[in-house]
Design brief:
The chain has 449 residues and is of the alpha/beta class. It has 14 helices and 23 strands. Strands 1, 2, 3, 4, 5, 6 and 18 form a seven-stranded mixed beta sheet that branches. A five-stranded antiparallel beta sheet has the order 19-20-23-22-21, with helices on both faces. The structure holds NADPH dihydro-nicotinamide-adenine-dinucleotide phosphate.
Amino acid sequence: MKKRAFDVVVVGSGTAAYYAVAGLKQHSNMTIAIVDERPYGGTCALRGCQPKKYLVSNAESVASVSHLLGRGLEGEVRTNWGALQRLKNEFLQGRSEAAQAHWDASGVTTFNGTARMRADDQIEVGGQVLTAKTIVLATGSLPNQLPIEGGALARDSEYFLDMEKMPERVTFIGGGFISFEFAHVAIRGGASAVHILHRSARPLRAFEDDLVAVLLKASAAAGIDVQLGVVPERIVATETGYSVHSASGAVIETDLIIEATGRHPNLTVLDGNMGNVAFSSKGVEVNSFLQSVSNPRVYAIGDCADTPYMLAPVADREGQIAALNIVHGNSHEVDETVVPSAVFSIPTLASVGLTEEAAREQSLKYRVNQGDTTDWPSSKRIGEEYGAYKVLIDADTDLILGAHILRHNAAEVVNVFALAIQFNISASALANFLWAYPTSTSDLKYMVK
Ligand code: NDP
């Protein structure tokens, strides 16, 4: 078998890999190879965050108009799903070819094929063996599949992103990020019956309960049927579509089932266990430098690493840190204490820092500022009927412990709170800052006063 030697071989070409390779190139003259079995670019750019935002932006526009009907707007606006798909596909057209060409042009050797680790320092791809001083695993994650009868009849978010037509009836299994985001897209995009089936009483478990409760009301008002405590047991193909049978005996008839019950690390690169890389169902086991605990030649970053978040910006950060550690020796540790996140439902649910439950568990002394935002001028003028916030402020230091917002532009404002937490900006400093006015960010002062 042909052998080629590199300083670093990176497996995967998503956002984590991008930042790792960019960092390696910036800080060293190492020889680098990238291997991917799918088109270059990874999940976020090609099959997740970026294309999804095309669908979400369209749904937000439809919703914005519907909120103002009879309040200064007349007429009807509707999604043209086919045209929306064309717009999104135009954006995607050529992106992965451009990503690969970018690396080729910058002296990185790219391979297209399935990588397998064959030894501590070896990756096999397409009949060649690549030896490496360092191997970076950035292989991402894959959607979970329920082990229930007929489970294979359910599709995943990737199918939804690319489907040519919006079905009449769409059912989502799971009460997390994807179900809520895509259910809001489906109901605005022309579906008439949209269900979310969630197994417990608590969907979007990582988010603040009080705000999730308001999102459930907003979802119901939009026409989304969220059923809690429903455990799907069986999926059956029917003459007209599918039926989902739950443990309690309830049956939902639908045209499309999207399963969104979480994702798991994609570790097929380790099939055969020849690389001495320890892993669990949570991913490659790494130390705080993102180095494999069992094979010091290996670093793991992004969704395939056993680190707390499966989020694109976290993957970016991990790529940067791994690059610095590979070049300079282990010197940079991951710090994932301030990680804002957002569910792009309508309205958006965004969060950073501690929930009240977490603050209570840690026996912190805090005050809570919380309220409804629908009477605020910024909500009134756009007809937003569901909105709320909850901010936890340390009782002694006046620092922000957590901020949770459900409304338009929530993610933008939560980013400001994230900055405040990271750099110890107090609630009173935020309240007294001269924000451009009136903006979503200037509303922040009402949340911290
Ligand atoms: P989530 O982890 O957000 O939600 C999974 C849901 O499925 C939970 O409600 C969970 O319930 C439920 N579930 C898990 N196992 C089962 C089961 N066996 N039977 C029934 N229900 C089950 O995953 P998603 O699939 O929605 O998204 C995958 C990941 O992708 C997210 O975790 C996030 O990291 C990322 N993502 C981020 C986005 C963003 O940043 N805006 C958007 C989309 C995805 P329970 O709570 O009870 O465990």
